[in-house]
Amino acid sequence: MSKLSEQLQEEVAKRRTFAIISHPDAGKTTLTEKLLLFGGAIRLAGTVKARKANRHATSDWMEIEKQRGISVTSSVMQFDYNGHRVNILDTPGHQDFSEDTYRTLTAADSAVMLIDVAKGVEAQTIKLFQVCAKRGIPIFTFINKLDREGRSPFDLMEELEQVLGIRAVPMNWPIGMGRDLCGIYDRMKNQVELFQGDDHSNIQVQKVEDYQDPVIRDMAGEFLHNQLCEELELLDVAGDPFDYEKVSRGELTPLFFGSAINNFGLQTFLENFLQLAPKPSTRQATEGPVAPTDEKFSGYVFKIQANMNPAHRDRIAFLRICSGKFTRGMSVKHVRVGKEIKLAQPQQFLAQDRDIVEEAYPGDIIGLFDPGIFRIGDSLSQGSEVTFDELPTFSPEIFARVTVKNALKHKQYQKGVDQLTEEGTIQVFTSTGVFDETILGVVGQLQFEVFEYRMKAEYGVDVQLQRLTFQFARWVVGKDIDPTKFRINSQLVKDKKDNFVALFENEYAMRTAMDKMPDVQFLETAP
Ligand code: GDP
Protein backbone atom coordinates (compact mmCIF):
# COMPACT_ATOMS: atom_id res chain seq x y z
CA MET A 1 0.00 0.00 0.00
CA SER A 2 1.33 3.46 -0.84
CA LYS A 3 2.04 5.95 1.89
CA LEU A 4 -0.78 8.20 0.72
CA SER A 5 -3.20 5.32 0.68
CA GLU A 6 -2.29 4.40 4.25
CA GLN A 7 -2.63 7.99 5.36
CA LEU A 8 -6.04 8.24 3.68
CA GLN A 9 -7.33 5.12 5.37
CA GLU A 10 -6.29 6.47 8.73
CA GLU A 11 -7.68 9.97 8.21
CA VAL A 12 -10.97 8.74 6.75
CA ALA A 13 -11.46 6.25 9.58
CA LYS A 14 -11.29 8.97 12.19
CA ARG A 15 -13.63 11.44 10.53
CA ARG A 16 -17.26 12.00 11.50
CA THR A 17 -19.14 14.65 9.54
CA PHE A 18 -22.67 15.36 10.67
CA ALA A 19 -25.40 17.97 10.87
CA ILE A 20 -27.79 18.69 13.71
CA ILE A 21 -31.40 18.85 12.57
CA SER A 22 -34.04 20.41 14.78
CA HIS A 23 -36.84 22.91 15.10
CA PRO A 24 -35.84 26.36 16.41
CA ASP A 25 -35.42 26.50 20.19
CA ALA A 26 -34.89 22.80 20.70
CA GLY A 27 -31.37 23.63 21.87
CA LYS A 28 -29.15 23.26 18.80
CA THR A 29 -26.93 26.20 19.65
CA THR A 30 -26.55 24.96 23.20
CA LEU A 31 -25.76 21.40 22.12
CA THR A 32 -23.27 22.55 19.50
CA GLU A 33 -21.52 24.76 21.98
CA LYS A 34 -21.29 21.98 24.57
CA LEU A 35 -19.93 19.51 22.04
CA LEU A 36 -17.32 22.01 20.99
CA LEU A 37 -16.36 22.49 24.61
CA PHE A 38 -15.81 18.74 24.95
CA GLY A 39 -13.41 18.96 22.08
CA GLY A 40 -11.71 21.94 23.63
CA ALA A 41 -12.67 24.27 20.80
CA ILE A 42 -13.47 27.02 23.24
CA ARG A 43 -12.81 29.85 20.86
CA LEU A 44 -15.56 28.48 18.74
CA ALA A 45 -18.08 28.32 21.51
CA GLY A 46 -17.77 32.10 21.62
CA THR A 47 -18.50 32.24 17.94
CA VAL A 48 -21.65 30.26 18.33
CA LYS A 49 -22.81 32.60 21.04
CA ALA A 50 -22.04 35.66 19.01
CA ARG A 51 -24.17 34.33 16.26
CA LYS A 52 -26.98 33.59 18.60
CA ALA A 53 -26.92 37.08 20.06
CA ASN A 54 -27.30 38.53 16.61
CA ARG A 55 -29.89 36.22 15.35
CA HIS A 56 -32.91 38.10 16.48
CA ALA A 57 -31.59 41.41 15.23
CA THR A 58 -33.71 43.44 12.87
CA SER A 59 -33.92 42.32 9.31
CA ASP A 60 -32.35 45.33 7.67
CA TRP A 61 -29.70 44.21 5.31
CA MET A 62 -26.57 45.23 7.14
CA GLU A 63 -27.84 43.23 10.05
CA ILE A 64 -28.53 40.26 7.85
CA GLU A 65 -25.12 40.53 6.39
CA LYS A 66 -23.49 40.82 9.76
CA GLN A 67 -25.48 37.90 10.91
CA ARG A 68 -24.60 35.84 7.88
CA GLY A 69 -21.00 36.91 8.18
CA ILE A 70 -20.91 35.50 11.63
CA SER A 71 -22.94 32.46 10.87
CA VAL A 72 -20.68 31.65 8.00
CA THR A 73 -17.62 31.55 10.19
CA SER A 74 -19.37 28.84 12.10
CA SER A 75 -20.82 27.11 9.03
CA VAL A 76 -18.44 24.27 9.66
CA MET A 77 -17.03 23.54 13.06
CA GLN A 78 -14.28 21.10 13.67
CA PHE A 79 -12.92 19.53 16.80
CA ASP A 80 -10.99 16.48 17.95
CA TYR A 81 -12.29 14.04 20.51
CA ASN A 82 -10.98 10.60 21.53
CA GLY A 83 -8.99 10.21 18.35
CA HIS A 84 -11.86 11.35 16.11
CA ARG A 85 -11.88 14.42 13.89
CA VAL A 86 -15.41 15.76 14.10
CA ASN A 87 -16.99 18.14 11.57
CA ILE A 88 -20.33 19.69 12.54
CA LEU A 89 -22.16 21.30 9.64
CA ASP A 90 -24.37 24.15 10.66
CA THR A 91 -27.89 24.02 9.29
CA PRO A 92 -29.39 27.50 9.49
CA GLY A 93 -32.76 27.62 11.16
CA HIS A 94 -35.10 30.45 12.19
CA GLN A 95 -35.54 33.11 9.58
CA ASP A 96 -32.34 32.13 7.73
CA PHE A 97 -33.80 28.71 6.95
CA SER A 98 -33.32 28.18 3.23
CA GLU A 99 -32.53 25.67 0.54
CA ASP A 100 -28.94 25.91 1.76
CA THR A 101 -30.11 24.13 4.86
CA TYR A 102 -31.28 21.19 2.78
CA ARG A 103 -28.22 21.20 0.56
CA THR A 104 -25.91 21.19 3.56
CA LEU A 105 -27.47 17.90 4.58
CA THR A 106 -26.14 16.30 1.40
CA ALA A 107 -22.63 16.98 2.67
CA ALA A 108 -23.23 15.18 5.99
CA ASP A 109 -22.60 11.49 6.58
CA SER A 110 -25.06 11.31 9.45
CA ALA A 111 -27.46 13.54 11.34
CA VAL A 112 -28.31 14.21 14.95
CA MET A 113 -31.99 14.95 15.36
CA LEU A 114 -32.56 17.12 18.39
CA ILE A 115 -36.00 17.12 19.98
CA ASP A 116 -37.46 19.11 22.86
CA VAL A 117 -38.86 16.66 25.40
CA ALA A 118 -41.98 18.76 25.92
CA LYS A 119 -42.65 19.57 22.26
CA GLY A 120 -41.76 16.36 20.51
CA VAL A 121 -41.45 16.24 16.72
CA GLU A 122 -42.01 19.72 15.23
CA ALA A 123 -42.51 21.09 11.72
CA GLN A 124 -38.94 21.92 10.76
CA THR A 125 -37.67 18.65 12.20
CA ILE A 126 -40.01 16.77 9.90
CA LYS A 127 -38.79 18.56 6.78
CA LEU A 128 -35.13 18.07 7.62
CA PHE A 129 -35.69 14.47 8.66
CA GLN A 130 -37.29 13.69 5.31
CA VAL A 131 -34.29 15.04 3.41
CA CYS A 132 -31.98 12.83 5.49
CA ALA A 133 -34.27 9.84 5.23
CA LYS A 134 -34.30 10.11 1.46
CA ARG A 135 -30.51 9.82 1.43
CA GLY A 136 -30.70 6.87 3.82
CA ILE A 137 -28.08 8.28 6.19
CA PRO A 138 -28.00 7.21 9.84
CA ILE A 139 -29.99 9.45 12.15
CA PHE A 140 -29.30 9.69 15.86
CA THR A 141 -31.93 11.21 18.13
CA PHE A 142 -31.25 13.30 21.21
CA ILE A 143 -34.23 14.20 23.40
CA ASN A 144 -33.27 17.44 25.11
CA LYS A 145 -34.35 19.44 28.17
CA LEU A 146 -34.92 16.44 30.44
CA ASP A 147 -34.50 18.84 33.37
CA ARG A 148 -37.97 20.14 32.47
CA GLU A 149 -41.29 18.40 32.71
CA GLY A 150 -41.98 16.76 29.40
CA ARG A 151 -43.63 13.88 27.66
CA SER A 152 -42.96 10.29 28.56
CA PRO A 153 -40.15 8.55 26.68
CA PHE A 154 -42.57 5.92 25.38
CA ASP A 155 -44.89 8.60 24.10
CA LEU A 156 -42.01 10.24 22.23
CA MET A 157 -40.88 6.93 20.74
CA GLU A 158 -44.37 6.34 19.47
CA GLU A 159 -44.43 9.78 17.93
CA LEU A 160 -41.15 9.17 16.10
CA GLU A 161 -42.70 6.10 14.57
CA GLN A 162 -46.08 7.63 13.76
CA VAL A 163 -44.90 10.96 12.41
CA LEU A 164 -41.50 10.12 10.94
CA GLY A 165 -41.91 6.42 10.33
CA ILE A 166 -38.73 5.51 12.15
CA ARG A 167 -38.40 3.15 15.09
CA ALA A 168 -36.09 4.06 17.93
CA VAL A 169 -33.76 2.05 20.08
CA PRO A 170 -33.07 3.79 23.39
CA MET A 171 -29.39 3.79 24.20
CA ASN A 172 -29.98 5.35 27.58
CA TRP A 173 -33.01 6.04 29.73
CA PRO A 174 -33.88 8.81 32.17
CA ILE A 175 -34.27 8.14 35.89
CA GLY A 176 -37.10 10.51 36.74
CA MET A 177 -37.82 13.65 34.76
CA GLY A 178 -38.08 17.39 35.26
CA ARG A 179 -37.48 18.32 38.88
CA ASP A 180 -37.19 14.65 39.77
CA LEU A 181 -34.57 13.86 37.17
CA CYS A 182 -31.72 12.37 39.11
CA GLY A 183 -29.79 10.46 36.52
CA ILE A 184 -29.55 8.62 33.23
CA TYR A 185 -29.01 4.90 32.79
CA ASP A 186 -26.73 3.87 29.92
CA ARG A 187 -28.17 0.63 28.53
CA MET A 188 -25.17 -0.13 26.37
CA LYS A 189 -22.42 0.39 28.88
CA ASN A 190 -24.39 -0.61 31.98
CA GLN A 191 -23.55 2.50 33.89
CA VAL A 192 -25.47 5.28 35.54
CA GLU A 193 -24.79 8.95 35.34
CA LEU A 194 -26.20 10.55 38.47
CA PHE A 195 -26.83 14.21 39.02
CA GLN A 196 -26.25 15.16 42.61
CA GLY A 197 -26.18 18.22 44.82
CA ASP A 198 -28.93 20.80 45.19
CA ASP A 199 -28.63 22.03 41.64
CA HIS A 200 -27.74 18.59 40.27
CA SER A 201 -24.49 19.99 38.99
CA ASN A 202 -22.34 17.27 40.47
CA ILE A 203 -22.31 14.58 37.79
CA GLN A 204 -21.10 11.13 38.85
CA VAL A 205 -20.67 8.20 36.54
CA GLN A 206 -20.74 4.74 38.02
CA LYS A 207 -20.56 1.23 36.55
CA VAL A 208 -23.35 -1.10 37.66
CA GLU A 209 -24.30 -4.75 37.10
CA ASP A 210 -27.52 -3.87 35.31
CA TYR A 211 -30.50 -1.63 35.87
CA GLN A 212 -31.61 -3.67 38.86
CA ASP A 213 -28.39 -2.96 40.72
CA PRO A 214 -29.20 -1.79 44.30
CA VAL A 215 -26.59 0.94 43.88
CA ILE A 216 -29.13 2.79 41.73
CA ARG A 217 -31.81 2.30 44.40
CA ASP A 218 -29.50 3.76 47.04
CA MET A 219 -28.85 6.81 44.97
CA ALA A 220 -32.18 7.42 43.24
CA GLY A 221 -34.59 6.14 45.89
CA GLU A 222 -37.02 3.26 45.72
CA PHE A 223 -39.78 4.94 43.77
CA LEU A 224 -37.65 6.08 40.84
CA HIS A 225 -35.68 2.86 40.77
CA ASN A 226 -38.84 0.78 40.59
CA GLN A 227 -40.09 2.94 37.78
CA LEU A 228 -36.79 2.56 35.92
CA CYS A 229 -36.89 -1.23 36.31
CA GLU A 230 -40.45 -1.47 35.07
CA GLU A 231 -39.78 0.68 32.04
CA LEU A 232 -36.58 -1.07 31.08
CA GLU A 233 -38.12 -4.51 31.50
CA LEU A 234 -40.81 -3.43 29.12
CA LEU A 235 -38.19 -2.23 26.65
CA ASP A 236 -36.20 -5.46 26.96
CA VAL A 237 -39.30 -7.42 26.06
CA ALA A 238 -41.13 -5.20 23.59
CA GLY A 239 -38.47 -2.82 22.27
CA ASP A 240 -36.32 -3.24 19.15
CA PRO A 241 -32.91 -4.75 19.72
CA PHE A 242 -29.97 -2.66 18.64
CA ASP A 243 -29.22 -3.48 15.00
CA TYR A 244 -26.21 -1.78 13.50
CA GLU A 245 -27.22 -2.54 9.92
CA LYS A 246 -30.62 -0.95 10.37
CA VAL A 247 -29.03 2.09 12.01
CA SER A 248 -26.61 2.45 9.08
CA ARG A 249 -29.45 2.42 6.61
CA GLY A 250 -31.37 5.00 8.61
CA GLU A 251 -34.18 2.58 9.43
CA LEU A 252 -33.64 2.60 13.19
CA THR A 253 -32.57 5.60 15.24
CA PRO A 254 -30.44 5.25 18.36
CA LEU A 255 -32.20 7.34 20.98
CA PHE A 256 -30.51 9.35 23.72
CA PHE A 257 -31.95 11.40 26.54
CA GLY A 258 -30.26 14.32 28.23
CA SER A 259 -30.10 17.99 28.93
CA ALA A 260 -27.68 19.97 26.83
CA ILE A 261 -27.56 23.01 29.02
CA ASN A 262 -26.75 20.96 32.13
CA ASN A 263 -24.33 18.61 30.41
CA PHE A 264 -26.54 15.68 31.39
CA GLY A 265 -26.01 12.68 29.19
CA LEU A 266 -23.79 14.56 26.79
CA GLN A 267 -20.56 12.72 27.22
CA THR A 268 -22.13 9.29 26.81
CA PHE A 269 -24.07 10.61 23.85
CA LEU A 270 -20.92 11.93 22.17
CA GLU A 271 -18.95 8.77 22.84
CA ASN A 272 -21.65 6.41 21.64
CA PHE A 273 -22.38 8.60 18.67
CA LEU A 274 -18.75 8.78 17.55
CA GLN A 275 -18.47 5.04 17.85
CA LEU A 276 -21.62 4.31 15.85
CA ALA A 277 -21.70 7.16 13.33
CA PRO A 278 -20.28 6.31 9.93
CA LYS A 279 -17.00 7.54 8.56
CA PRO A 280 -17.13 9.18 5.11
CA SER A 281 -18.39 6.61 2.66
CA THR A 282 -18.42 5.96 -1.06
CA ARG A 283 -20.25 8.56 -3.16
CA GLN A 284 -21.91 8.13 -6.51
CA ALA A 285 -20.56 9.89 -9.58
CA THR A 286 -21.55 9.62 -13.23
CA GLU A 287 -18.30 7.75 -13.88
CA GLY A 288 -18.98 5.23 -11.09
CA PRO A 289 -18.59 5.03 -7.32
CA VAL A 290 -15.87 7.10 -5.66
CA ALA A 291 -14.37 5.69 -2.47
CA PRO A 292 -13.02 8.22 0.03
CA THR A 293 -9.71 6.38 0.05
CA ASP A 294 -9.23 6.81 -3.72
CA GLU A 295 -5.95 8.63 -4.01
CA LYS A 296 -7.20 11.18 -6.50
CA PHE A 297 -8.76 14.20 -4.89
CA SER A 298 -12.43 14.94 -5.61
CA GLY A 299 -15.27 16.94 -4.11
CA TYR A 300 -18.34 18.99 -4.90
CA VAL A 301 -19.71 22.42 -4.09
CA PHE A 302 -22.86 22.30 -1.96
CA LYS A 303 -23.19 25.90 -0.93
CA ILE A 304 -22.12 29.31 -2.18
CA GLN A 305 -22.03 32.16 0.24
CA ALA A 306 -21.86 35.68 -1.05
CA ASN A 307 -20.92 38.98 0.51
CA MET A 308 -19.43 37.62 3.62
CA ASN A 309 -17.16 40.55 3.93
CA PRO A 310 -18.68 43.83 2.77
CA ALA A 311 -15.21 45.22 2.14
CA HIS A 312 -14.36 42.51 -0.38
CA ARG A 313 -17.66 41.41 -1.85
CA ASP A 314 -16.14 38.00 -2.32
CA ARG A 315 -17.91 34.71 -2.50
CA ILE A 316 -17.00 31.47 -0.86
CA ALA A 317 -17.87 28.12 -2.37
CA PHE A 318 -18.15 25.35 0.20
CA LEU A 319 -16.68 22.10 -1.01
CA ARG A 320 -17.20 18.71 0.55
CA ILE A 321 -14.14 16.55 -0.02
CA CYS A 322 -15.19 13.09 -1.21
CA SER A 323 -11.86 11.41 -1.95
CA GLY A 324 -8.11 11.89 -1.82
CA LYS A 325 -6.05 14.46 -0.02
CA PHE A 326 -6.31 18.19 -0.40
CA THR A 327 -3.12 20.21 -0.20
CA ARG A 328 -3.05 23.95 -0.56
CA GLY A 329 -1.95 25.13 -3.97
CA MET A 330 -2.88 21.90 -5.73
CA SER A 331 -4.33 21.97 -9.24
CA VAL A 332 -7.63 20.29 -9.93
CA LYS A 333 -10.04 20.08 -12.79
CA HIS A 334 -13.21 22.14 -12.67
CA VAL A 335 -15.20 19.45 -14.45
CA ARG A 336 -18.15 21.49 -15.77
CA VAL A 337 -15.99 24.16 -17.44
CA GLY A 338 -13.21 21.72 -18.32
CA LYS A 339 -10.41 23.86 -16.92
CA GLU A 340 -7.60 23.31 -14.45
CA ILE A 341 -7.74 25.60 -11.45
CA LYS A 342 -5.34 26.12 -8.60
CA LEU A 343 -6.75 25.82 -5.08
CA ALA A 344 -4.55 28.45 -3.57
CA GLN A 345 -6.75 30.14 -0.99
CA PRO A 346 -8.94 27.61 0.73
CA GLN A 347 -10.45 28.60 4.01
CA GLN A 348 -11.76 26.66 6.89
CA PHE A 349 -14.23 28.36 9.12
CA LEU A 350 -12.86 27.69 12.51
CA ALA A 351 -13.35 31.07 14.05
CA GLN A 352 -14.11 34.67 13.26
CA ASP A 353 -10.78 34.87 11.47
CA ARG A 354 -10.71 32.65 8.49
CA ASP A 355 -8.02 30.10 8.98
CA ILE A 356 -6.13 28.90 5.96
CA VAL A 357 -6.11 25.15 5.57
CA GLU A 358 -2.94 23.45 4.40
CA GLU A 359 -4.38 19.98 4.07
CA ALA A 360 -7.75 18.32 4.39
CA TYR A 361 -9.29 14.89 3.89
CA PRO A 362 -12.57 13.26 2.84
CA GLY A 363 -15.38 14.37 5.13
CA ASP A 364 -13.80 17.79 5.60
CA ILE A 365 -15.33 20.95 4.19
CA ILE A 366 -13.17 23.64 2.69
CA GLY A 367 -14.20 27.08 1.56
CA LEU A 368 -12.85 28.13 -1.81
CA PHE A 369 -12.48 31.72 -2.82
CA ASP A 370 -14.93 32.11 -5.68
CA PRO A 371 -14.49 34.84 -8.28
CA GLY A 372 -17.78 33.72 -9.87
CA ILE A 373 -16.71 30.43 -11.42
CA PHE A 374 -18.68 28.00 -9.28
CA ARG A 375 -22.26 26.80 -9.28
CA ILE A 376 -24.04 24.66 -6.75
CA GLY A 377 -23.24 21.04 -7.45
CA ASP A 378 -19.98 21.65 -9.38
CA SER A 379 -17.44 18.85 -9.11
CA LEU A 380 -13.69 19.26 -8.80
CA SER A 381 -11.35 16.36 -9.39
CA GLN A 382 -7.76 15.44 -9.87
CA GLY A 383 -6.70 13.28 -12.78
CA SER A 384 -9.66 11.70 -14.53
CA GLU A 385 -12.99 13.49 -14.48
CA VAL A 386 -15.39 12.81 -11.67
CA THR A 387 -18.90 14.27 -11.85
CA PHE A 388 -20.91 13.88 -8.70
CA ASP A 389 -24.64 13.44 -9.02
CA GLU A 390 -26.48 16.71 -9.26
CA LEU A 391 -27.82 18.09 -6.00
CA PRO A 392 -31.56 17.82 -5.74
CA THR A 393 -33.64 20.96 -6.24
CA PHE A 394 -35.95 21.17 -3.26
CA SER A 395 -39.50 22.23 -3.53
CA PRO A 396 -39.96 25.91 -2.54
CA GLU A 397 -42.74 26.99 -0.22
CA ILE A 398 -42.88 30.76 -0.57
CA PHE A 399 -43.57 32.44 -3.90
CA ALA A 400 -43.57 35.93 -5.34
CA ARG A 401 -44.09 37.53 -8.72
CA VAL A 402 -41.13 39.65 -9.67
CA THR A 403 -41.12 42.76 -11.82
CA VAL A 404 -38.36 45.20 -12.72
CA LYS A 405 -39.11 48.81 -11.91
CA ASN A 406 -36.99 50.16 -14.77
CA ALA A 407 -37.51 48.27 -18.02
CA LEU A 408 -34.21 49.55 -19.42
CA LYS A 409 -32.38 47.49 -16.85
CA HIS A 410 -33.65 44.24 -18.25
CA LYS A 411 -30.25 42.93 -19.26
CA GLN A 412 -28.71 43.45 -15.83
CA TYR A 413 -31.83 41.98 -14.30
CA GLN A 414 -31.44 38.81 -16.35
CA LYS A 415 -27.79 38.56 -15.43
CA GLY A 416 -28.57 38.94 -11.74
CA VAL A 417 -31.37 36.40 -11.83
CA ASP A 418 -29.13 33.89 -13.64
CA GLN A 419 -26.32 34.37 -11.16
CA LEU A 420 -28.52 34.14 -8.08
CA THR A 421 -30.24 31.05 -9.44
CA GLU A 422 -26.87 29.40 -9.96
CA GLU A 423 -25.87 30.21 -6.43
CA GLY A 424 -29.08 28.63 -5.27
CA THR A 425 -30.50 31.76 -3.65
CA ILE A 426 -33.76 31.53 -5.55
CA GLN A 427 -35.61 29.31 -8.00
CA VAL A 428 -37.12 30.90 -11.07
CA PHE A 429 -40.31 29.85 -12.78
CA THR A 430 -41.99 31.24 -15.88
CA SER A 431 -45.66 31.21 -16.59
CA THR A 432 -47.14 28.95 -19.23
CA GLY A 433 -50.17 31.16 -19.83
CA VAL A 434 -50.67 34.13 -22.10
CA PHE A 435 -49.09 36.61 -19.71
CA ASP A 436 -45.34 36.49 -19.48
CA GLU A 437 -44.55 36.50 -15.82
CA THR A 438 -41.66 35.45 -13.67
CA ILE A 439 -42.28 33.79 -10.35
CA LEU A 440 -39.61 33.25 -7.71
CA GLY A 441 -39.76 30.41 -5.26
CA VAL A 442 -37.81 30.09 -2.02
CA VAL A 443 -37.80 27.96 1.10
CA GLY A 444 -37.20 30.76 3.59
CA GLN A 445 -38.35 34.38 3.58
CA LEU A 446 -34.81 35.67 4.04
CA GLN A 447 -33.93 34.48 0.55
CA PHE A 448 -36.29 37.11 -0.91
CA GLU A 449 -34.65 39.84 1.14
CA VAL A 450 -31.24 38.67 0.00
CA PHE A 451 -32.45 38.63 -3.62
CA GLU A 452 -33.87 42.16 -3.47
CA TYR A 453 -30.81 43.55 -1.79
CA ARG A 454 -28.30 41.91 -4.06
CA MET A 455 -30.16 42.82 -7.27
CA LYS A 456 -29.86 46.43 -6.20
CA ALA A 457 -26.36 46.35 -4.72
CA GLU A 458 -24.65 44.20 -7.33
CA TYR A 459 -26.66 44.71 -10.49
CA GLY A 460 -28.18 48.12 -9.92
CA VAL A 461 -31.69 46.79 -10.47
CA ASP A 462 -34.72 47.71 -8.41
CA VAL A 463 -37.13 44.81 -8.30
CA GLN A 464 -40.59 44.58 -6.96
CA LEU A 465 -41.80 41.42 -5.33
CA GLN A 466 -45.46 40.63 -4.96
CA ARG A 467 -46.14 37.75 -2.63
CA LEU A 468 -48.37 35.01 -4.05
CA THR A 469 -50.56 32.71 -2.03
CA PHE A 470 -49.10 29.43 -3.28
CA GLN A 471 -47.70 27.13 -0.65
CA PHE A 472 -46.62 24.03 -2.51
CA ALA A 473 -44.69 23.28 -5.67
CA ARG A 474 -44.57 19.90 -7.35
CA TRP A 475 -42.69 18.93 -10.49
CA VAL A 476 -45.23 17.26 -12.74
CA VAL A 477 -44.09 14.49 -15.01
CA GLY A 478 -46.15 12.42 -17.40
CA LYS A 479 -47.73 12.32 -20.84
CA ASP A 480 -51.15 13.61 -19.95
CA ILE A 481 -50.48 16.92 -18.31
CA ASP A 482 -53.56 19.00 -18.87
CA PRO A 483 -52.87 22.72 -18.25
CA THR A 484 -56.58 23.46 -17.95
CA LYS A 485 -56.66 21.40 -14.76
CA PHE A 486 -54.41 23.91 -13.01
CA ARG A 487 -56.69 26.91 -12.90
CA ILE A 488 -58.33 26.81 -9.53
CA ASN A 489 -56.06 27.61 -6.59
CA SER A 490 -53.15 26.48 -8.69
CA GLN A 491 -50.98 27.45 -11.62
CA LEU A 492 -48.80 25.57 -14.06
CA VAL A 493 -45.34 27.07 -14.64
CA LYS A 494 -41.97 25.95 -15.99
CA ASP A 495 -38.61 25.83 -14.23
CA LYS A 496 -35.38 26.96 -15.85
CA LYS A 497 -34.90 23.56 -17.48
CA ASP A 498 -38.39 23.70 -18.99
CA ASN A 499 -39.83 21.11 -16.61
CA PHE A 500 -43.48 21.58 -15.71
CA VAL A 501 -44.09 22.67 -12.14
CA ALA A 502 -47.50 23.04 -10.53
CA LEU A 503 -47.99 25.60 -7.78
CA PHE A 504 -50.81 25.07 -5.32
CA GLU A 505 -52.44 27.35 -2.82
CA ASN A 506 -53.35 24.59 -0.44
CA GLU A 507 -53.13 20.91 0.13
CA TYR A 508 -56.68 20.38 -1.03
CA ALA A 509 -55.96 21.83 -4.47
CA MET A 510 -52.91 19.61 -4.70
CA ARG A 511 -54.79 16.45 -3.76
CA THR A 512 -57.55 17.29 -6.23
CA ALA A 513 -55.05 17.68 -9.08
CA MET A 514 -53.42 14.39 -8.14
CA ASP A 515 -56.77 12.64 -8.13
CA LYS A 516 -57.74 14.07 -11.50
CA MET A 517 -54.48 13.00 -13.11
CA PRO A 518 -53.68 9.58 -11.70
CA ASP A 519 -51.09 8.87 -14.38
CA VAL A 520 -49.11 12.02 -13.75
CA GLN A 521 -46.35 12.09 -11.15
CA PHE A 522 -46.12 14.97 -8.69
CA LEU A 523 -42.54 15.15 -7.42
CA GLU A 524 -41.16 17.07 -4.46
CA THR A 525 -37.72 17.45 -6.02
CA ALA A 526 -36.87 18.28 -9.63
CA PRO A 527 -36.73 15.24 -11.95
P1 GDP B 1 -31.76 26.63 19.05
O1 GDP B 1 -32.76 27.64 18.60
O2 GDP B 1 -32.19 25.25 18.70
O3 GDP B 1 -30.35 26.91 18.65
O4 GDP B 1 -31.85 26.60 20.66
P2 GDP B 1 -30.94 27.24 21.79
O5 GDP B 1 -29.71 26.42 22.01
O6 GDP B 1 -30.78 28.67 21.55
O7 GDP B 1 -31.89 26.98 23.04
C1 GDP B 1 -33.18 27.53 23.13
C2 GDP B 1 -33.50 27.78 24.57
O8 GDP B 1 -33.55 26.53 25.28
C3 GDP B 1 -32.43 28.61 25.28
O9 GDP B 1 -33.06 29.46 26.18
C4 GDP B 1 -31.60 27.57 26.01
O10 GDP B 1 -30.99 28.09 27.17
C5 GDP B 1 -32.65 26.54 26.37
N1 GDP B 1 -32.09 25.19 26.55
C6 GDP B 1 -31.21 24.53 25.79
N2 GDP B 1 -30.95 23.31 26.31
C7 GDP B 1 -31.69 23.20 27.43
C8 GDP B 1 -31.86 22.18 28.42
O11 GDP B 1 -31.25 21.12 28.38
N3 GDP B 1 -32.74 22.46 29.42
C9 GDP B 1 -33.43 23.63 29.52
N4 GDP B 1 -34.25 23.79 30.53
N5 GDP B 1 -33.29 24.61 28.62
C10 GDP B 1 -32.43 24.40 27.59
From TrEMBL:
Superkingdom in the source lineage: Bacteria
Protein location: Cytoplasm
A biological-process GO annotation: regulation of translational termination
Pfam families, A to Z: EF-G_D2, GTP_EFTU, RF3_C
GO molecular function: GTP binding; GTPase activity; translation release factor activity, codon nonspecific; translation release factor activity, codon specific
Annotated Gene3D superfamilies: P-loop containing nucleotide triphosphate hydrolases, Peptide chain release factor 3, domain III, Translation factors
PANTHER family documented for this protein: PEPTIDE CHAIN RELEASE FACTOR RF3
UniProt protein name: Peptide chain release factor 3
Organism: Paenibacillus aquistagni
Lineage, uppermost ranks: Bacteria, Bacillati, Bacillota, Bacilli, Bacillales
This protein's encoding gene: prfC
